[in-house]
Amino acid sequence: MPNIKSAIKRVELAKVRTIKNAAAKSTLKTAIRRFEESLTSDQEAATLALRKASRALDKASAKGLIHKNKAARKKSRLTKKFAKVFTKVS
Prior knowledge:
The structure is a single chain. By secondary structure, the protein is mostly helical. It has a single domain (5-86), classed as CATH 1.20.58.110. The protein is built from three helices and no strands.
């Protein structure tokens, strides 16, 4: 345990940040999960869920919660899943 006042404050702030980051990551995972669940329903619901998931990934990336390349990779994979389910092959 730190003895210096500023170090004590840093420990407290780190705890607060950890809780906020965990909540934000959970929200992000939920948006992605809801998109994957919506793939079984109609295309409009899946489109809306994909948009929400992409937006959540962009926000997480902007906040520094996840790396921008990871966000781009996840968005690409989600879009690919969407296209695979809803694009008709003739």
